[in-house]
Amino acid sequence: xxxxxxxxxxxxxxxxxxxxxPEILVAAIEGFEAQKKSIDAQIAELRQMLSGxxxxxxxxxxxxxxxxxxxxxxxxxxxxxxxxxxxxxxKKAAPRKAIAHPKKAxxxxxxxxxxxxxxxxxxxxxxxxxxxxxx
Length: 135
Prior knowledge:
Blueprint: H1 2-8, H2 22-51, H3 73-93, H4 112-134
């Protein structure tokens, strides 16, 4: 009976939405794990039918994850102090080099004659613009 259901099951064709709440994701994972266990049992049943012998487990036993070790405050302090020592030794070994800044070129200044010529051109241009607007 379970074998017939396994052969008739279909794959979901609808794409999953990209933004899901964590509760929904956890529920989906639990549901898929339950489906996986069911499918593994059906595969074992089929293998037993095929070979005529006892069914082999399709899944590997899960190894428990090792708990993450935490560094104590004293350990963190020792690590920080050792790092400070290394930095101090590094800075002492390599003396600072003076950074050479390029000198800025002296600012150019207009001669009084050139300034007068530019002013005359400006007065001429404004007069032409006023004459054109008056027409």
